[in-house]
Amino acid sequence: YHEFESRPFRTMKVKLKVKGLIIPLLLSIAAVIAACLSKQYYHYAYRNFVAMDSVSHSYKVYPNTPLDSVLADIEQDYHVCSELSWHLMCQLKDFNTPKTGYYTLPSVLSNRELIRRLQLGEQTPVKLSFTQAIRTPEQLAAHLGERLMLDSTDIIQALKSIHKENIPVWTMFLPNTYEVWWTLTPEQLINRMQREYDSFWTEERQAKAKALSLSPYEVQILASIVASETNRRDEHPLIASLYLNRLRKGIPLQACPTVIYAHGLKDPQALKMRRVLKRHLSYDSPYNTYIYRGLPPTPIRLTRPDVIDAVLNAPRTDYLYMCANPDFSGTHIFSSSYAKHSAVARQYQRELNNRKIK
User: Fold this and answer.
1) 19, 57 in Cβ contact below 8 A?
2) What is the CB neighbour count within 10 angstroms for residue 158?
3) Is pLDDT above 90 for 128?
4) What confidence score (pLDDT) does residue 294 get?
């Protein structure tokens, strides 16, 4: 009887022991699962990409770039805490094609943030600058093609096909720094620059131009010549005054930068000309102000707003001539007397010969 009764009892004890083990085991498994899910959620919502150098990084995503290629670029700068988490989230969100754009990523970001940016195209604006070193629409197109997702050929076509009041569109690109989208079209960029140009020409500036008997565009043309004469901002108002005096008196401007520009339109290397010789002055071009009176037909370079203002606010002087200082200090000697000007010019020519500048 004892033997008969002990077997069920022992079986019951084993079952109780098994039950006692199952519950902790299940709890342990649940804890592990919860920990894994928490970790994956942490990577998804807070931190999965960490920059190796602790700074932000920027990337250009071109049209039809595979997501794996973008990730490969990012992995050169960022440590990915969990690639499993990244790929899992991309699958759950059915995300495999990032939008074209320029993206600056913070030093630490989550899967959610990176997916949102690339999926919605949350770009970072790029800083676009122009300088007055740009002298032709071709140079401008090349400059833009290097900094934006634009083809220089498309830019040239847009610059030449869009007109506003007979003003070449490329001359409306006032040298400054602008924030724009890397993916904008040539038309969008031109519209933006036109708005900036119109905004610059306030009623006050237009009134000053009118007082000089010039249109805003003519002021810009003159400013481009002034800017080409020197980089010294303190001399811009005096040079502007000199040329305004010549315009009023009907005297040819005889500005060497316009001669250089005229030759440069035929041969771009001529734009680097260091010395204008007598044979250069006879070159027939509407830009040659030694031959043709008045202003050339267009600006000869992009012109900074401060140089335009120097023309608008030029002082009243009696200067009609100027010559580079023979001491090569970068300054000019101004005069109202041709005799004085000729004497300085001869000294300067001798110094050019002594320095073998051709």
Assistant:
1) no
2) 19
3) yes
4) 96
Give the mean pLDDT of 196-202.
96
Position 30 scores a pLDDT of 61
Instruction: Output 115-120 pairs: Cβ under 8 A, ≥24 positions apart.
Output: 115/89, 115/90, 118/61, 118/67, 118/70, 119/93, 119/95
Encoded tokens for 178: 């602008």
What are phi and psi for residue 334, nearest 5 degrees?
-100, 145
Task: Kindly report, residue by residue over 295-351, the tens digit of the pLDDT.
Answer: 999 999 999 999 999 999 999 999 999 998 888 888 999 999 999 999 998 898 888
CB neighbours of residue 9 within 10 Å: 9
The share of the chain scoring above pLDDT 70, in percent, equals 88
What is the signed CA dihedral for 25, 26, 28, 34, rounded to 10 degrees? 170
204-247 pLDDT, tens digit each:
999 999 999 999 999 999 999 999 999 999 999 999 999 999 99
The answer to whether residues 79 and 136 touch, using CB atoms and an 8 Å cutoff, is: no
Please state, in angstroms and rounded to a whole number, the distance separating the CA atoms of residues 315 and 241.
Answer: 6
Considering the entire predicted model, what is its pTM?
0.82
The token duo for 111 is 């899967």
The 3 state secondary structure assigned to the chain is CHHHHHHHHHHHHHHHHHHHHHHHHHHHHHHHHHHHHHHHHHHHHCCCEEECCCCCEEEEECCCCCHHHHHHHHCCCEEECCHHHHHHHHHHCCCCCCCCEEEEECCEECHHHHHHHHHHCCCCCEEEECCCCCCCHHHHHHHHHHHCCCCHHHHHHHHHHCEECCEEHHHHCCCCEEEECCCCCHHHHHHHHHHHHHHHCCHHHHHHHHHCCCCHHHHHHHHHHHHHHCCCHHHHHHHHHHHHHHHHHCCCCCCHHHHHHHHHHHCHHHHHCCCCCHHHHCCCCCCCCCCCCCCCCCCCCCCCHHHHHHHHCCCCCCCCEEEECCCCCCCEEEECCHHHHHHHHHHHHHHHHHCCCC
Mean pLDDT of all residues in 62-87: 93
